[in-house]
């Protein structure tokens, strides 16, 4: 392995520098420091990077708005839909499937711009990840940013599941800083989602009043369990939620008004809670509770179809879950279990077969006949919205 890399690196790094330099840019500026974070068990080694199939080419329909910027910065075109996701080796297969699903169902796939946030110290260099995205989606409009992990590492406290501590989980908090100030709205997506509907519909939602974030809300959630006794017994902290009952929302799918975000210094507001957490343990989960503290109760309620979350099961056992009632536009495998892992281990949950058609990892190809049948069965019996998939 090391010998191979020694030969491949000098050549590929040079080529990548020349070819991809413009698409890689630095995000957060901070002191460089030699911090290495163990991102959990990385299930794919670097060789796997060449094992993604090229996605079919998705083209705009005749009704799509023509982009005006064909120059070096297509992300500045006012008609672009902006999507931000993280990109790391561990969840790469999920990210690739998510992008594939967005393109497949978008009415105007060429008008979608992807902002990928990669970790400075990922096993796969951000330039290698750029190359992978380019070879998988040859005509995709995207940019890879490097997230300086040390901006956040001192703010992270340990949580119940190790994966929740990955600094990239906190990248969504820095989108206002990382993305160009010209990008004023972005859809943030976790890497364990697939869309089965047109992303332009989600992009078009109105954030009423001065709301900064739109996301499906769950107002029957019992907040007691998201925060510790130290939080609830504090004289001041509980009043953060005001008199109204706060609603839960999942931060894996958010429409964010970055203009309002920057103007209101929301990054700093979230960091303040992370500072509190370092002194007094006020919650158990990773990046979500600070968002609840800052935005809980003041989120634009988007239709629940845009985040059917929890399909990965709970954070401890990863048991199978079913869908919430109602229509589905986005499936989200939040929780411990990931569909690619369960499929590979031949112990998938029924809904994992809905993720599989978006998987571009080549090792799966010989299975497709079988999977198509299982997909049909699971669609018929579980929901009856097969038109989304065919
Ligand atoms: C989104 O809004 C734009 C601009 O108003 C409109 O042209 C487009 O048809 C809308 N797309 C969808 C899918 O609603
Ligand atoms: C919320 O959960 C706590 C602890 O599990 C429980 O004591 C409380 O009664 C619950 N509240 C509601 C409204 O269900």
UniProtKB/TrEMBL annotation:
<dbReference type="InterPro" id="IPR002495">
    <property type="entry name" value="Glyco_trans_8"/>
</dbReference>
<dbReference type="InterPro" id="IPR050748">
    <property type="entry name" value="Glycosyltrans_8_dom-fam"/>
</dbReference>
<keyword id="KW-0328">Glycosyltransferase</keyword>
<keyword id="KW-1133">Transmembrane helix</keyword>
<dbReference type="GO" id="GO:0005794">
    <property type="term" value="C:Golgi apparatus"/>
</dbReference>
<comment type="similarity">
    <text>Belongs to the glycosyltransferase 8 family.</text>
</comment>
<comment type="pathway">
    <text>Glycan metabolism; pectin biosynthesis.</text>
</comment>
<keyword id="KW-0812">Transmembrane</keyword>
<dbReference type="Pfam" id="PF01501">
    <property type="entry name" value="Glyco_transf_8"/>
</dbReference>
<feature type="transmembrane region" description="Helical">
    <location>
        <begin position="6"/>
        <end position="28"/>
    </location>
</feature>
<keyword id="KW-0472">Membrane</keyword>
<keyword id="KW-0325">Glycoprotein</keyword>
<keyword id="KW-0808">Transferase</keyword>
<dbReference type="GO" id="GO:0016757">
    <property type="term" value="F:glycosyltransferase activity"/>
</dbReference>
<keyword id="KW-0735">Signal-anchor</keyword>
<protein>
    <recommendedName>
        <fullName>Hexosyltransferase</fullName>
        <ecNumber>2.4.1.-</ecNumber>
    </recommendedName>
</protein>
<dbReference type="InterPro" id="IPR029044">
    <property type="entry name" value="Nucleotide-diphossugar_trans"/>
</dbReference>
């Amino acid at each position: 392995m090391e010998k191979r890399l020694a030969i491949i690196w000098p050549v590929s790094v040079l080529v990548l520098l020349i070819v991809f330099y413009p698409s890689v840019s630095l995000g957060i500026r901070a002191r460089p420091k030699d911090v290495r974070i163990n991102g959990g068990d990385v299930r794919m080694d670097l060789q796997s990077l060449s094992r993604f199939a090229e996605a079919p080419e998705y083209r705009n329909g005749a009704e799509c708005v023509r982009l005006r910027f064909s120059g070096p910065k297509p992300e500045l075109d006012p008609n672009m839909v902006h999507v931000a996701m993280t990109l790391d080796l561990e969840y790469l297969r999920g990210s690739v499937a998510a992008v594939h699903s967005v393109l497949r169902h978008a009415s105007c796939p060429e008008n979608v711009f992807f902002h990928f946030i990669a970790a400075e110290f990922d096993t796969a260099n951000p330039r290698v990840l750029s190359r992978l995205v380019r070879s998988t989606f040859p005509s995709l409009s995207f940019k890879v940013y490097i997230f300086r992990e040390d901006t956040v590492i001192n703010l992270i406290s340990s949580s119940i599941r190790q994966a929740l501590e990955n600094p990239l989980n906190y990248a969504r908090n820095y989108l206002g800083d990382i993305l160009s100030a010209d990008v004023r709205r972005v859809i943030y997506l976790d890497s364990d989602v697939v869309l089965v509907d047109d992303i332009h519909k989600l992009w078009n939602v109105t954030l009423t009043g001065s709301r900064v974030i739109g996301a499906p809300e769950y107002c029957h959630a019992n907040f007691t369990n998201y925060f510790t006794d130290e939080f609830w017994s504090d004289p001041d902290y509980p009043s953060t939620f005001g008199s109204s009952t706060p609603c839960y929302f999942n931060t894996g799918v958010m429409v964010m008004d970055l203009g309002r975000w920057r103007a209101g210094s929301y990054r700093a507001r979230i960091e303040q809670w992370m500072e509190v957490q370092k002194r007094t343990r006020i919650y158990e989960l990773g990046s979500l509770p600070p968002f609840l503290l800052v935005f809980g109760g003041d989120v634009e309620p988007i239709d629940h179809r845009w985040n059917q979350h929890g399909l990965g099961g709970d954070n401890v056992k990863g048991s199978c879950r079913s869908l919430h009632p109602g229509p589905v536009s986005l499936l989200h495998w939040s929780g411990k279990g990931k569909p690619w892992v369960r499929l590979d281990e031949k112990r998938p949950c029924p809904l994992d077969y809905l993720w599989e058609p978006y998987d571009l990892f080549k090792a799966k190809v010989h299975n497709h006949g079988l999977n198509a049948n299982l997909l049909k069965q699971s669609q018929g019996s579980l929901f009856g919205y097969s038109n989304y998939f065919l």
